[in-house]
């Protein structure tokens, strides 16, 4: 099975609850990698205990997962998705590439727990994200962002 399909098989529970699962992804990312919380000024100062109920965290978490859903459904033809994403993340948010690798591992764990992502799906998700992140990196280099 293609990597995209091996992940999409488990996408239903994610799609049904983008806000809550997105919140869990960002809350766990900020717990495990506290520096990532500083990347987005609007999240500075929110304590771990207040994150689950924070609407801004849920909204951005949902945005991240919806992007990933678009990438999965594009099945490799994701250049038009990656370009604006790389643009905004390099020039506006200034998010270094390594952060995308960190969030990948968190999404793998949360999907394992909340959507039952199996071992093959976990490998497939890492593969998809690896290609996606390499394409982001190529765009970053074109933009002259060292990321
Ligand atoms: O869109 C957005 O917002 C992004 C998404 C993605 C994911 C993965 C890869 C690439 C891209 N984001 Cu936001 C991201 C991130 C965050 O938020 C935080 C941290 C890290 C990363």
Describe this structure in words.
The chain has 147 residues and is an all-alpha fold. It is 72% helix and 0% strand. Helix 6 (79-92) crosses helix 8 (119-143) and helix 7 runs antiparallel to helix 8. The protein is globular, with a radius of gyration of 15 Å. It starts with a helix and ends with a helix. The mean pLDDT is 96. The structure holds (N-salicyliden-L-phenylalanato)-copper(II) (CUP). (N-salicyliden-L-phenylalanato)-copper(II) (CUP) binds next to helix 5 and helix 7.
Q: How would you concisely characterize the structure shown here?
A:
72% of the residues lie in helices and 0% in strands. By secondary structure, it is mainly α. The N and C termini lie far apart (33 Å).
In terms of topology, how is this protein built?
Elements: H1 3-8, H2 12-15, H3 18-32, H4 48-51, H5 55-74, H6 79-92, H7 98-115, H8 119-143
Helix pairs in contact: 3-5, 3-7, 6-8, 7-8
Please give a handful of descriptors for the protein shown.
147 residues; mainly alpha; 8 helices; 72% helix; globular; binds (N-salicyliden-L-phenylalanato)-copper(II); oxygen binding; Globin-like_sf; iron
Distinct small-molecule ligands in the complex = (N-salicyliden-L-phenylalanato)-copper(II)
Binned, the helix content reads over 70%
How many E strands? 0
Main β sheet profile: none
Query: What class do helices, strands and sheet pairing give?
Result: mainly alpha
Report the principal-axis shape: globular
The succession of helices and strands, N to C, reads HHHHHHHH
Q: What's the average pLDDT?
A: 96
- SS element count, helices: 8
* Content of β-strand: under 5%
Distance between the termini: 33 Å
Return residue spans where pLDDT drops below 50 for at least 5 consecutive residues: none
